[in-house]
Amino acid sequence: MKAGRLAIAVCLVLFALTATAQTPPDATLAENPVFQKNCAKCHGKTAEGRHFAGPSLVSEKTLMSADDLRDIITNGKHHMPKFAGKLTPDEINTLVQQITASKK
Ligand code: HEC
């Protein structure tokens, strides 16, 4: 049934549009106060990394799964401190989303 497939396609497009619309355009990593307060001192105000400190979070190299990102932020990694207990799961999820979104 062609019409049925079209209806499914229209639904998917509408879903994608609504999903995008829910993230305000100004909600980038660099504009998240949680990032500026907790992460910018090592990863830079624009998340592009700083010498001798945290790596860039917006480069292609940070292409990892949301689960891995959440794990690193929650539990830390080498010189990256852990944020379990310092940030709420919601705040960590938002950071993960914004890091992922900066790759597109
Ligand atoms: C004290 C400095 C410091 C702070 C504060 C800090 N980081 Fe990091 N971060 C690092 C360092 C150093 C690494 C590299 C760890 C390694 O792989 O050795 C890192 C790695 C990461 C990575 C993995 C990047 C990659 O390519 O492997 C992510 C994601 C990350 N940090 C996110 C955050 C977020 C989000 C915050 C704020 C909640 C934050 N960091 C706060 C120093 C810091």
Describe the structure.
The chain is 52% helix and 0% strand. The protein has a single domain (25-101), classed as Cytochrome c-like domain (Cytochrome Bc1 Complex, Chain D, domain 2, Orthogonal Bundle), CATH 1.10.760. It starts with a helix and ends with a helix. Helix 4 (66-75) crosses helix 5 (89-101). By secondary structure, the chain is mostly helical. Bound molecules: heme C. Residues 38-39, 41-43, 53-55, 57, 61-62, 69, 72-73, 77-81, 83, 95, 99 line the site of heme C.
Describe the protein's topology.
Layout: H1 2-22, H2 33-38, H3 40-43, H4 66-75, H5 89-101
Helix pairs in contact: 4-5
The protein binds heme C (HEC).
Heme C binds next to α3, α4 and α5.
Main attributes?
binds heme C; Cytochrome Bc1 Complex, Chain D, domain 2; 0% strand; mainly alpha
What's the CATH architecture?
Orthogonal Bundle
CATH superfamily: Cytochrome c-like domain
- Number of self-contained structural domains: 1
Shape designation: globular
Provide the list of bound ligands, each named once: heme C
Class in CATH? Mainly Alpha
**Helical coverage, percent range:** 40-55%
Derived from helix and strand composition plus strand pairing, the structural class reads mainly alpha
Backbone CA Rg:
17 Å
Low-confidence stretches: 10-25
Question: How is the biggest beta sheet arranged?
Answer: none
Distance between the termini: 35 Å
Mean pLDDT comes to 79
Order of helices and strands: HHHHH
In the CATH scheme, what's the topology name? Cytochrome Bc1 Complex, Chain D, domain 2
Strand content: under 5%
Question: How many DSSP helices?
Answer: 5
Number of strands: 0
